[in-house]
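BACKBONE GEOMETRY TOKENS:
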Amino acid sequence: MDRSGVAIGQQYEDRLRLAEAYDRAGFHAYHVAEHHSTPLGCAPSPSVFLSAVGQRTRRLRFGPLVYTLSLYHPLRIFEEICMLDQMSGGRFELGVGRGISPIELGFYGVDVAEAQGMYLEALDIILKAFAGGRLSHEGEHFSFKDVPIEIRPLQNPHPPLWLGVTRPEGAEWAATHRVNIVSNGRADQVEKVASAYRKFWAAQRHHHEPLPKIGMSRHIVVAESAAEARAIGARAYAKWHASLMYLWRAYGSVPATLSFPESFAEALEAGYCIAGTPGEVRDRIRTQVEAANINYLLCRMAFGDLSYEESLRSVELFAAEVMPAFDMSLTAA
């Protein structure tokens, strides 16, 4: 949830109203990223915002993509996960990760060299806690003994898991453990990850189970005319990209795994953004979905300085004239 320019309280309300629109439109899920001390992240505590999403919607699933687990004590975040799943009637989706920004981790005193180990150890503890009973752990980063597990998630054994995957080799663990994934990049880059996932999935002989979600994200703007959609998209993308790069530029660094073009024209050409009439958006999505070999599309329909009205119109046109053409999961961010 990058800063839009309106008062922050108004932005929260606007996004909650959009979540209600996603719910009405039949989107599968709503995902929110976790960022800290940057205009890229105005929902630095995903659980707080998502608790409101759960109360304002009835069918829409929702979750973090991702909780930056290296910043949490695993027992505390486990309890938040259980609360959110119970309060929403079992609609929670659990995205986990190390954290993409060493700058943000550093603000919390986390050494990036230790973040991966902290994340993996925290995830292992959380997965063990889902079994209930009492929990003991003695590890490099966390230690506790005989802790009573008093609450459980509603979904059994736990909410669906999500990972961000950037390289084909990263798909093996996810496929082996039946974890959903989302990847960013050009369609041909995502296709390498998606094909690797499908290969690892087949090797595990999960044939009797439905294939987990293999997704990619795209900025989406739909309007009555292509010129209007692209003008709106260009304005909003410039602000979003400035927020994306804010900390990296402030600290004289560059992200290792982010490759979003700076200009909107380049982003359109490379396929990171899709803007146009409903028919144009429908055709471009179909082309990219087939090229990337995915079964899940994460639609970033509120970004930069898009107004609530602009995003809502985009959602309404998308739901009425784009979504019916696809037998796949479409989601929002």
Q: What stands out?
A: Residues 101 and 255 are 8 Å apart (CA to CA). The first strand starts at residue 29 and ends at 32. The mean pLDDT is 95. The two ends are 8 Å apart (CA to CA).
